[in-house]
Write a structure and sequence with these properties.
This is Beta-glucosidase. Belongs to the glycosyl hydrolase 1 family. By secondary structure, the protein is an alpha/beta fold. It has one domain: Glycosidases (TIM Barrel). The protein has 17 helices and 13 strands.
């Protein structure tokens, strides 16, 4: 008997650019090739999930999972504006059908950080034109695949750009900050981001960016975002939902947000409230009609009147320099449920560590918190661990190991299932 009741989804998550390999038409791929790249290394073949998805889905099914969250790569579907590639749609159709054959419910994300290069060359995510570009892509995908799926996340971590903007602003005010301060900043964004390198390359790479992106400051989805850009992302989400509902009213739609467990320290109550408003509350008018919200959490953020408090002196830190704090997930779910009244799915929660026993302990504690929320009638309907595979963690490359499955990239991409995958499967309701 699993920890959760029948109808609850227990799964794992991936993102196309991080696992597929050779997404050569995307903005991330272009950034990886630059001399002054913000990426530590290029993604290249990633972990070859594009060709090995059947094997990876079978691992999940064998462990007992009943759902898989993955993303469709826009740059594969539409490598040039208006040029849609039918063979790529068929690839994702095959992924969806493989999930169904193995007893896993597919949760499809339409945008997970990476965009086609041409979108960025035309102004990117600070241009209102992107709303229509995204809408045309969404309409094409849904007309082709909508009858195959029941759950769609339009945009992953729609608030990421504002989180990055806040970090970059703090860093600019503290150019002489020491290393420990920079490590502290690294804990405040739930993305494999190297903010110091971003700042340096902003200076060095302007000419290179002009050549590749047609602007010295390309506005990718993970660029530092303005309030206007934040509004554009929300309008893109709303238009996507409208299109999906027009075509398939029964499909459950929503987006996901990167959410910290914001804990005010004495004197920091007002600042903590402002942080939560920027991270979550101000999105409510744009998502209140959505069927669900995807909650994505990895740790907590303690706030004083003068800003973020570093992790306690002897706290355990993950490879990402996050504080090991699985209790954060329950706290975030409870906070969100007070203001958002649709269904909740934990679409990402996990830990980067080389010690799989700590991963298992993290999953156990985090899912205990989920079960506690459900016992209090909070409508949490699923838990997706991040990530299925050790993969390409954006700026950090292949150094961060979040996966339930290890991948030996030097020896034919051989998979090695970790005990944590079987543990996660044991939490799944009996089928």
């Amino acid at each position: 008997m699993g920890k959760f009741q029948k109808g609850f989804f227990v799964g794992a998550a991936t993102a196309a650019h991080q696992v597929e390999g050779n997404n050569i038409y995307s903005d991330c791929w272009a950034q990886e090739q630059l001399k002054y790249s913000i990426f530590q290394e290029p993604s290249l073949d990633a972990v070859d999930h594009y060709n090995r998805y059947q094997e990876d889905i079978e691992y999940m099914a064998d462990a007992g999972l009943n759902a898989y969250r993955f993303s469709i790569e826009w740059a594969r579907i539409e490598p040039e504006q208006g040029k849609f590639v039918e063979t790529e749609i068929e690839h994702y159709r095959n992924v969806i059908r493989c999930c169904r054959e193995k007893g896993l419910e597919p949760f499809v994300t339409l945008h997970h950080f990476s965009s086609p290069l041409w979108v960025i060359q035309k102004g990117g995510w600070e241009s209102e034109d992107v709303i229509q570009y995204f809408a045309e892509y969404v309409e094409y995908v849904m007309k082709k695949l909508g009858n195959e799926i029941k759950y769609v996340c339009t945009i992953n971590e729609a608030n990421m750009g504002l989180q990055i903007a806040a970090i970059m602003e703090r860093q600019k005010r503290q150019e002489k900050a020491n290393t420990s301060r920079r490590k502290e900043e690294g804990q405040q964004v739930q993305l494999g981001m190297d903010s110091e390198k971003m700042e340096e390359n902003e200076r060095l790479g302007a000419e290179e960016n002009e050549r590749v992106f047609y602007t010295a400051t390309p506005q990718t989805f993970c660029s530092s975002r303005t309030e206007q850009g934040d509004f554009i992302v929300m309008k893109a989400h709303q238009k996507a939902v409208h299109i999906i509902k027009e075509l398939y009213p029964e499909i459950k739609t929503g987006l996901t947000l990167s959410l910290h467990d914001i804990q005010p320290q004495p004197g920091g109550e007002e600042r903590a409230k402002a942080e939560w408003e920027k991270e979550f509350t101000h999105y409510l008018p744009y998502i209140e009609q959505d069927n669900f919200l995807g909650v994505q959490n990895y740790s907590r953020s303690r706030i004083r009147a003068d800003g973020i408090v570093p992790a306690p002196e002897h706290a355990e830190l993950t490879q990402m320099n996050y504080e090991y704090y699985p209790e954060a997930l329950e706290h975030v779910i409870r906070a969100v449920s007070k203001q958002f009244h649709g269904d909740l799915y934990v679409t990402e929660n996990g830990i980067a560590t080389a010690d799989d026993t700590r991963r298992i302990a993290f999953i156990e504690k985090a899912t205990d918190g989920v079960a506690s929320c459900i016992a209090d009638d909070i409508p949490v309907k699923g838990y997706f661990y991040w990530s299925l595979l050790d993969n390409f963690e954006w700026h950090r490359g292949y150094t961060m190991t979040f996966g339930l499955i290890q991948v030996d990239r030097k020896h034919g991409m051989k998979r090695q299932v970790k005990p944590s995958l079987a543990y996660l499967g044991q939490l799944c309701p009996d089928k």
